[in-house]
Amino acid sequence: MKRFLTLIFATLFVVPLFGQGADDACMFSQTIYQGTAKALGMGNALGAVGGDMTAICINPAGMGIYRSNEFATTLNLLDNYHSSTYYGATKGANKMRLSIPNIGYVSHKERSNYRPLRSTQFGISLTRTDDYNLHTRARGINPTSSKIDNYLSRIDGYSEDDLVDCFPYDIYPAWQTYLIDIYQDSEGDYFGSPVPQGNIWQGQENTFRGRSEEWSFAGSANYYDRLFIGFSVNVAHIKRIGSRVFEESHPDGADPETGFNNWSFGEDLSSTGWGCNAKAGFIFHVTPWMRIGGAFHSPSIYAFDETWQTETESEIGYVTRKYISQESHYEYTFIKPLRWVGSMAFILGHRGMVSLDAEYTNFGAARFKAVADDDYDYNPTNETIQETYGRTFNFRLGTEWNLNGSYLRLGAGYYGSPFGLGNNLGSLKKASCGISVPAGEDTTFDFAYELTYGQTHLFLYDAGELGIEPITQKQFKSNLAATLKIRF
Fold this sequence. Notes:
The structure is a single chain. This protein is mainly beta. Helix content is 11%, strand content 57%. The protein is elongated, with a radius of gyration of 26 Å. The N and C termini lie far apart (59 Å). The relative contact order is 0.19.
């Protein structure tokens, strides 16, 4: 447990000095489908069901179920609320966004009613695979330490001249704004700070927007109306823009001895990645009432372009000072781990169905690599990823019931902890419901609602022996979706 907590401090919950950290590897490796309202209402348990645009992204063989051409598009409203408790104080914040998480077209072609190959399909779809829109706030009185204590421990043994070259984005700006200075005692000069060691207001606010998504170009085939196979080539895209602002302030307005009032450390980050992967799968009708399916998702290889900048501001002795770092630009390659999906569905005549998906991935297999003209060594980061994260399973359950032409849907999901089997930290629980309403012979409206709950612990920095309490963060994500389907 001690080793595990040390890794957590060193990677996931300490604010990184640039984007290519273990926490980013975990975030970019996560896949949480936000596609059609049918998929949302059934908990995305469509691996053995098919016949839906989101199902193509989970198992491309699901496109073989189509019996006509179809166009579909989805509109959703996402409200992401976080409750953060820090040293007994609780703050809430939310981020709301309207978007189009899915749009697609499937072309169906009949082949023969007598030969093994009955039909083929080709489809193009865009599916959102995760959402990065969030707003969080945490604030409380830390009785034991300051972030400046972390700075001072890191520069032990360094000289004043080393700061600009070794710590240009965080500690050198603190030096420039007099949060760190040279003090003297009987043993000589040493680095010190006017910021008190604890008993100060402390907190952080995060505001981010962005998404990950895939353009799928898929083909499928139907054999004997029992075996369906599919393959897709996918263009993946990740976009994440936002800021983090850490703040500390004296509870009395100003320290009577040092004059310290408050200080802040802000980061502006922009990450864009383009990548590709391939998927293959099958669905087999074992009996008229039972279907099984399987799919393989290859690793996704991304080329990332990232910019990062920091801003440090202090108010000491009623004098305000500000230092803005230079903007840094990074290019790197990120490899998202492969996935396996196993599925089963039970068809209850014309009354309804029950389906189950089990998805496997290994977050510890994520990797960063330098681009050709960059000699940066990512091996330490990759070793940390491998030691910190592990294998996990996601389980999705869905059901659909015929209500005289309309369909009622229910779904549930459990997304396992990225830290490995047997760990619950960072896991997500989902529940959903939905309904399908025909608007004509070839037109259908689907509606769905999904609620996601998760809880995790976040450390603002590593305070060493001084100690720091983690932020207990609870997430409540509400998703409303409406899909229009037109068959022709």
